[in-house]
């Protein structure tokens, strides 16, 4: 079986974790920004599907 040769240091582990968390924080910030823009009507270059009311069909 394949076995790692050396134990990964705590510093390296924490560095990977910080990178992962940082990417998630940036993605969350962008999503919040887009959501605020859509709700305020300032969205440019973002397609937001608006449900049309189904009242008169004939």
Explain this structure to me?
With 58 residues, the chain is an all-alpha fold. Helices cover 53% and strands 0% of the residues. It has 1 helix and no strands.
How far the N terminus sits from the C terminus, by CA atoms, comes to 69 Å
**Mean pLDDT over all positions:** 85
Give the helix tally.
1
Low-pLDDT parts are none
Biggest sheet record = none
How many DSSP-defined strands?
0
Q: What does the radius of gyration come to?
A: 23 Å
Write a short abstract of this structure.
The protein is built from one helix and no strands. The chain is mainly α and 58 residues long.
Keywords:
58 residues; mainly alpha; elongated
Helices, strands, pairings?
Elements: H1 10-40
């Amino acid at each position: 079986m394949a076995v790692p040769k050396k134990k990964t240091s705590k510093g390296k582990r924490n560095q990977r974790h910080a990178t992962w968390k940082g990417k998630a924080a940036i993605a969350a910030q962008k999503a919040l920004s887009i959501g605020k823009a859509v709700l305020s009507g300032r969205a440019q270059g973002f397609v937001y599907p608006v449900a049309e009311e189904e009242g008169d069909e004939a």
